[in-house]
Structures are given as C-alpha cells and as structure tokens.
Amino acid sequence: MNFAIKGDILYSYDKKTLVSKKDSYVVCENGISQGIFKTLPNKYKGIKIYDYTNKLIIPGLVDMHLHAPQYSFMGLHMDLELIEWLNKYTFPEESKYKNMKYAKLAYDIFVNELKKSPTTRFSLFATIHVPATLYLMEKLEKTNLKGFVGKVNMDRNSVKSLQEKTSESIRDTLKWVEKSQDFKNIKPIITPRFTPSCSDELMLDLSNIVKDKNLPVQSHISENRAEIKWVKELVSGINCYEDAYDKFELLGTHTNTIMAHYVWPDEKGIEKIKKNKVWIAHSPSSNRNLSSGLAPIKRYLDMGIKVGLATDIAGGSYISMFRAMEDAITVGKIRSCVVDNNHNGVNLKEAFYMATKGGGSFFGKVGSFEKGYEFDALVLDESKIPTVLMPKLNIAERFERFVYMGNGMISGKFVFGKKIV
Amino acid sequence: MNFAIKGDILYSYDKKTLVSKKDSYVVCENGISQGIFKTLPNKYKGIKIYDYTNKLIIPGLVDMHLHAPQYSFMGLHMDLELIEWLNKYTFPEESKYKNMKYAKLAYDIFVNELKKSPTTRFSLFATIHVPATLYLMEKLEKTNLKGFVGKVNMDRNSVKSLQEKTSESIRDTLKWVEKSQDFKNIKPIITPRFTPSCSDELMLDLSNIVKDKNLPVQSHISENRAEIKWVKELVSGINCYEDAYDKFELLGTHTNTIMAHYVWPDEKGIEKIKKNKVWIAHSPSSNRNLSSGLAPIKRYLDMGIKVGLATDIAGGSYISMFRAMEDAITVGKIRSCVVDNNHNGVNLKEAFYMATKGGGSFFGKVGSFEKGYEFDALVLDESKIPTVLMPKLNIAERFERFVYMGNGMISGKFVFGKKIV
Fold first, then answer.
1. Between A291, A338, A405, which is nearest B294 by CB?
2. CB-based contacts of A378: which residues, under 8 Å, 6+ apart?
3. What is the pTM assigned to this prediction?
4. Mutate to test the interface with A, among B16, B333, B385 (most CBs of A within 10 A)
5. Which of B 316-345 lie inside 8 A of A, CB atoms?
C-alpha cells in the first residue's frame, strides 16, 4: 500500500549533516521510503496523503537498550550504584516475572507506554522466564513496532529466585528461540546479562547457539568501575572486560552485537570493539542515575565506532528518546569540560544521528527518509511550546527547541509504513 | 482568611530529613501555616477545606536564579560556552527589550508560563531597561507569585545596543527602585550582571545604593573558567573572583545576596562566601548546557553554605523546578564519580531541601509547612505516571517517582495563602 506524508521534514544524512525540506512529501511504497519530493510525481498522483502541513516530521527513534521488566519501578530507588542496585532492587523485581499474572499486568502497561512513546525500533531485555518473555513478544508483535527481545541468561551471582542452572538456561533458550519463529515484527536476540551473571560454560554454549542459529547478541560492558574489576577476577586469562566476551566469540565475531554503556573502555579492548563492528548503546540517563561515569561517546564517533542511543529503563528514568538525545549532548559537554577539557562535546547533529541512523543501522536500512530506507516516521507536536518572539525559526532550530522543550509529544508515528499513532 | 488543604503531605525538615503525613491537613491563617493536623482542631471546624485526598502536597518550589527576557529563546542555541553565548545570542536578544511592544509580548508569555509552573518564589534578572522591567514587575505582581526582580546593570563589555553609561545606569537604577515601591508581591533586587559587565565605579555606586536603601543583591560568580581568568585581569588587586565582589562590599557584606552558579570556588574565596552567608543558586541544567562544569554542591551543603536551586532560564532549558531537582541529583552523582571519586553525591533529600527551605530562607520563613512558615504549597498531579505493580508506595517514594516521571504537572498551587492554580 502506497501513501505519502506531508510536512516540514528533517533527517540526519550523516553525523555532521542535517537535511531539512520545508513543506514536502515523503512517499512510502510497501513500507519503504521512495524519498522526499517538493511536489508529488505523476506516478503518485491519487495516493493517500497524511497532511501534516507545518508540522515537523523526523525518522523514527531507535532505543538500543532497555529492560522491559524494570519499567514497573522506573524513577524509584536511585540511591545506589550498579551492583548494589541490581541485588537490592532489580533482581528481586525481575524475579516476579515467574508469575504470569504479574508479568501480564506489568508488560501490558509497558507495551502500552512504549507504543505511545517516540520509540519505533528497540532492542530490549526481558527476564530469564520463557513464558513471560513470549507473552511480551506477542504483545509487542501486535503493536507493529519492530525490535529485538532477549530472554536473559544468568547462571551465577544472582539472587536465588532469579538464577538458572546452566543446562536449564540453554534448554530454555533453545525452546524460546524455537517458539519465537512465529513473530514477524519481533525477533529473538541472544542475551547473556553480563559477565558476572554468566559462567564460562554458559557463555560458550550461548556462543554456539549464536553460530548455529545465526542470531544477534546483546549484553552490557564496562559500565561501572567496580564491575570491571570484578569481571577481571571472574574470568581467567583476560586483560580487560572486552576480552571476557571476545574469549567466547561474543564480541561481534560472528554476528551483529550490541554492547550497552561502555563507559570505561580499555585501550586494547577498544580496538576489538571497532574491528568487530560492535554497536555501543549509550544511555546517558542511566550512566548518571547509577553514578557510572561519563562515556567517551565523542571519541567513539570520531573513531568510527557504531553508536546508538538508549533509555536503559530503569537505570534510565524516562522512556522518551528525545530526553536521551538531550542528555547525550549535555553529558557529552560535561565530559568535554571536566575530563577531556577540549571543548569538543557531543552536538545536536551527532545526537540526532545516533538516535536515528546510528542505532537504526542495527536493524537494516533504518533511520532516514532517503530512498530505500524502511519508512519509520514521527510527527512532532509543538503545540505546548510557547511561541518565541524572534525571526521565524528554521526547521533545525524548531527541532532543537523540541528536543529540549517538547516533552516528547508526538501526533503521529509510523513503523515500516504502518501507522501506529 | 483561614482554610486548610487535605492530602498526603511531604516536606523537608532539614537536608537529612523528610517529613510525611498521610491523609492530613495543613491549616493556613492569614497566609501563614498553622502546622499539620491528622484531624482538624475544634477552633478550625467549619473553615474552607480544599480536599486533595490521596494527592501529594509539598511546599512551593523556589527558583533562585533565572532571566525573564531569555525565556523567548530557551532551548535554542546550545552550541557555545558562556562568553560567546552571551555575545552571540543573549545580549542581542536582551537588546530587544528596549522596544516596549516586544517586551510586552515576550513578558506576557513568560509570566503566563511561570504562573502555571511549579515555581512559587523566584529571584530573576530582567534587562537594563526600566520601562520593560517595571512592566514585568506589574505583570508578576498580578499573579500573586512572590519574588525579586532586578533591573540589570552593565556599563562595559556588552554589545553597543545593551550597554549603559555608568551615570545613566545609576540614575536609572534609582528611578526604578523608587517606582518599585508600589509593588507588594514583587520587590527590587540590585543586579550587577557580573564583573565583566560592571566597571569598578559602577560596582562602588551600586554598593552605596545597597547600603542606603538596604536592598538585596544578586549576581553571577565563578561560572566558567575563561570568565574567572578574565575577571582577574579586569579587576586590580584581587586574588580570586570572590574578591571582585567583596572589594566593593557586594559579597553579602551588608545584605542578603544571591550568587548564581559558583561552579569553580577559590579555596580562600569560599571562606568569605560562607562567612558572609551568601546564598548560592545552583543551576545544573545551565552548567551542563554551557559546558561550565560540575559545581561542588555536596561540599557546600556539608560546609553549611546556603544553597538553593535554579533553572537559570535560558542557560537552563526548562522552567520546571522538578527537573532542577532531578539534575541536582544526577549532576552531583556524576561529580562524585568522575571528580571527587567518593560515592557521595547529592541525594533526593538534599535536592528537595535546596528547592524548598534552602532557597526559601532567602525570602523569610518560606519552604516548609511547619507552624509559622508562609503558606506556599503545590498539589502534584500523578495521573500521567503509569501504575507500578509493587507494594503500595509510601509518600516519599511517590515523590521520588514524581521528580523523575511527573513532568512537573501540578493540580494546585498556593502562594502566601493565595490560590494561584
């Protein structure tokens, strides 16, 4: 089915270049963008038009890392750092998802909020529980959002109620991957929680599943300094956290891989991240809330490492990817000021790139309106932003204000050509 | 006129102590709190009751530093550091307030937004222009909000369109102070913009006005490292920025004084700040947006220095003091992590204290529901926060979630016993 949307269009061509087209059309043919037109070509005369004249239209936003079961306590218990926070609040909460009654209630709320949010694509963590994870995938499938969901693996250093035997973790993973084949919009992603939660044996078995089934991988890396120290004690024969995944060929060796956070890179490890084309999921909100640190995102971008943005619910305390953009900029500025002292922080163009094409590339041709890209779009609602009294703003300036003042309010949302909101 | 409000009440007793009272009353008599009661005493039987049962009620929030004329470009032009930002964007915008037509349009929007916001008390900067500043004070007077407004003084290093002659700056200040006497809710505050904008002669004359008229003072201090270096070049015989105000007895010597930012304290200067009981206005949003740095707020609190929170519109990019609380916490955590490395950041209790009693003390007995405090209150609207599926939250937990997830939405607002919203 073909249609077009009309309005003031902005997208990120690359991390240095914004493209804006006033009062133009983006044409969608079978879920794929046919590009931007000032006037509709004859071949498209008569197709359905969604008229958003004078409204801002941008590509959909990609949330590269969040935890669906943690949405239930987002904005609470922000008083601890990573390891203590996991043990005291997070693991006990995730344990509740063994109970399907609880899981259904909680996931129904989460899926409803995600559907209304500016997020169009995502890669998220569920829990270790197969039935609850399949329920979450079913609910997400129906929204027509697209993304990856991971049944979490963890066979050590958890609370008793949230720890698997290695054999059962693998058996459940294979069962879950099998049952996930029914879904079109939602795909499985292999998800060892992080090295402290996964024995060498489990990592090795998961690595084999990745190779056999050709599945993508997501995990956490180098988020917190105490965590990094612990990992070096847990895994023999490694020099850095990066090696703890590379040792088991889980650092982008065979497949697309997302590593969340990467706040504290190792100078040797960072070369492997780059060489293996690992996507880094940057969550500035989580990195502040858990006192993790200031990730050197500008350096990653300048090195050509793949970086996307993430909310990291519930380490992160909001669902709006516009807040993630704002925080990527401000956290990057603070790092440039107090750590690098080089006046070279992350800017709006780079944040917009990371939130669209940067993360989108994990999903294929996603994150732009250029011809051939999957048609994901957001229509921004600027109605609550008080009028400024200055020469009429251009499209990029209106977008900047929206990032800071728009509260993530959208009046339209499309994913792969389907209207969601 | 006496009345009571009923609901779930939370206030900050001191920076370590939250007080919460489920389903209770706060009684207001002639604008003054009579304290909190589980059941209304007989003497209050029959008074008007605002019934906010099951809603959270907290003291009003105090914005210690913001620039009213900058609201018109809030959320724009976040690409420069302080001095360049002032010259390229801020000074040209403030120049427009010479034109009363522009000033009226812009200030009408600002005052309307401030009235709807969670802010009940404020100390703000206007521009150098007397007619526009008096118009702003008239509009604010009518809202029944309470606060200080400063006609800005600047006789050097500005753009041509926004620079006064010293004599004219003093003459206009005296005229403005005279005309400000009509207002009840809004009071004048002497406002040398900051040392780079004010000659020694101007500082001296303003200091004399402060003494003659017994007026409070507000200015900026030690916000940006380049600024501090410049100040040491501009003023002879000083060792630190603090001395540049102290030299003219404008650092809390004779009167209540607010100094905004104070990101980079001098080890000798900080003792003068403490000794002279200067209030520091901490604006975490502005300090990030302008790459100013990470203010050592936890240290100030531990030293017993007076600290309040501020939005610093438009260096800050939001009007909600709840965002200022959130950012005070997260920016404090980041400083504790990357600068102090002491796991001792600013916590929610301290942020709440700074936003209420900490800043409120500048206005008298303001920022609490204890008997004898001026009755400023906010009723919080939690309706947009998705239900969490966990044991029923207590009042302090609900408040924490509201700070992170509430979007500053209020369903009631009182200042000195008058209902504003």
1. A338
2. A57, A58, A59, A60, A61, A118, A120, A410, A412, A413, A414
3. 0.97
4. B333
5. 317-318, 326, 329-331, 333-334, 336-339, 343, 345
Q: What is the ipTM of this complex?
A: 0.96
In three-state form (DSSP H/G/I as H, E/B as E, the rest C), the secondary structure along A196-230 is HHCCHHHHHHHHHHHHHHCCCEEEEECCCHHHHHH
Option in A75, A329, A397 nearest B400 (CB):
A75
By the CB < 8 Å criterion, does A100 face chain B? no
Domains along chain A with CATH numbers: 3-59+369-419 (2.30.40.10), 61-363 (3.20.20.140)
Which residues of chain A neighbour B76 with C-beta distances below 8 Å? Answer: 388, 393, 397, 400-401
| Cβ–Cβ below 8 Å for B337 and A293 | yes
Amino acid at A409: M
* Structure token digits, residue B351: 């942020």
- What tokens appear for B225 in the block? 């490292």
CB contact under 8 A, B334 and A294: yes
In 3D space, the residue among A161, A228, A224, A156 whose CA is nearest the CA of residue A192 turns out to be A156
- Give pLDDT tens digits along chain B (421 positions): 799 999 999 999 999 999 999 999 999 999 999 999 999 999 999 999 999 999 999 999 999 999 999 999 999 989 889 999 999 999 999 999 999 999 999 999 999 999 999 999 999 999 999 999 999 999 999 999 999 999 999 999 999 999 999 999 999 999 999 999 999 999 999 999 999 999 999 999 999 999 999 999 999 999 999 999 999 999 999 999 999 999 999 999 999 999 999 999 999 999 999 999 999 999 999 999 999 999 999 999 999 999 999 999 999 999 999 999 999 999 999 999 999 999 899 999 999 999 999 999 999 999 999 999 999 999 999 998 987 766 689 999 999 999 999 999 999 999 999 999 9
